[in-house]
Amino acid sequence: MARVTVEDCIDKVDNRFELVLLAGHRARQISQGAAITIDRDNDKNPVVALREIADETLSPGDLKEDLIHSLQKHVEVDEPEADIDDSADQPTTAAVSAAADDDAVTFDRMTEEDLLAGIEGLVPPEKSDDY
């Protein structure tokens, strides 16, 4: 029965290696308690998985995505990106909260003379011929 099932599945999944991966993944799902979509007919889990793929009760694309997801260690969540045009027209919540916090923040003010004195202290002294 399995050989006929494999021949039936080749129409749905072109690559035999990919078929083995998908059927093996589905067989593991069945052994872990996933509901089967066809009658078992006293078949083992790999044959049931192949028959499900052959009868197209499960989409090979969905099985492939599920297999990839099960093998990933770090799953990235796709979040919609904000449009640049929309964000330029409307202030962000961070800008609004920063504007509200401006009233509460106080800054130390420095005179121009103090600034120049500080800058002069950073510049190394000029070399002279005396040394």
| Total DSSP E strands | 0
Termini Cα gap? 100 Å
Gyration radius from CA atoms, angstroms:
34 Å
SSE ordering: HHHHHHH
Give an overview in words.
There is one protein chain. This protein is mainly α and 131 residues long. Helices cover 55% and strands 0% of the residues. It is built from 7 helices and no strands. The longest helix has 16 residues, at 16-31. The radius of gyration is 34 Å and the shape is rod-shaped. It starts with a helix and ends in a 9-residue tail after the last helix. The relative contact order is 0.09. The mean pLDDT is 79.
TL;DR of this structure?
With 131 residues, this protein is mainly alpha-helical. Helices cover 55% and strands 0% of the residues. The chain is built from seven helices and no strands.
Using brief descriptors, characterize the structure shown.
0% strand; 131 residues; rod-shaped; mainly alpha; 7 helices
Task: Outline the secondary-structure elements.
Blueprint: H1 2-9, H2 16-31, H3 45-54, H4 60-71, H5 84-89, H6 93-101, H7 112-122
Helix pairs in contact: 1-3, 2-3, 2-4
